[in-house]
Amino acid sequence: MKVTYYGHSCFSVYANGKHILFDPFITPNELARDVDVDAIKADYIFISHAHYDHILDVERIAKNTGAKVLGNFEIYNWLLKNGIENAHPINPGGKYDFDFGTVKCVTAQHSSSFMDGSYGGIASGFVLTTIDGNFYYSGDTALTLDMQLIPKFTSLDFAVFPIGDGLTMGIEEAVEASKLVGVTKILGVHYDTFGFIVMDHQKAYDGFKNAGLELYLPEIDSTILL
Q: Metallo-beta-lactamase domain: from which residue to which, for each copy (predicted)?
């Protein structure tokens, strides 16, 4: 599958002819200043939780593209209040079929609130099954044994994990998460954007390589195959 990285935890997967975007946070990110937000294609947008660094550009991109936006029930209501009518609720445990394939919402261990401090619902991750391949995006999370349930239902081609530490998993925990879900290819996200999650890239590459895993840290606004 073609995967385009837009910085922080924002990435897009092209699967079954559809552009599937996750956690759009681009315009405030100095590292992503060369990304043309209005040129981003999206048929679907998935929001893992309500923190501003995962949701800030969702209104702009959704209104530009007409994409269907999915998030937990609290995010769904927030979207409707902000004029995004093409919204769809999905909570952990829930599964839906769409024209690209199937999405299963799973638990993430993380806090969640909107920019005004109001409750943002439970944080979550997503498992997508498509004819082009299957993958798991954990969202912001700590390492949790719940992850070992994922391969009982879906055989994954790759996973997307936060590796910047501090607010989420770091390198060592993401390596263990990879083992729990049964993948060897990992796209690392949620690092370098802020001073408290700046990461040693070589240490990250070495940590995964020593475990027999392949870590991908693509340049922002670049596309790779996974």
A: 7-190
Are 137 and 48 a contacting pair, CB within 8 Å?
yes
Residues 6+ apart with CB under 8 A from 160: 11, 22, 135, 136, 137, 138, 186, 187, 189
Helices (H) and strands (E) in the chain, counts: 5, 14
DSSP three-state, residue 196: helix
Question: Do the beta carbons of residue 161 and residue 138 sit within 8 Å?
Answer: yes
Q: Answer positive or negative: Cα dihedral of 175, 170, 30, 44.
A: positive
**From the candidate CATH numbers 3.60.15.10, 1.10.1370.40, 3.40.640.10, 3.40.50.12780, the one assigned to the domain spanning 2-217:** 3.60.15.10
What is the bridge-based pairing of β-strands 87-89 and 68-71?
parallel
pLDDT digits 0-9 by tens, 113-159: 999 999 999 999 999 999 999 999 999 999 999 999 999 999 999 99
* pTM, rounded to two decimals: 0.97
Backbone angles phi, psi at 39, to 5 degrees: -95, -5
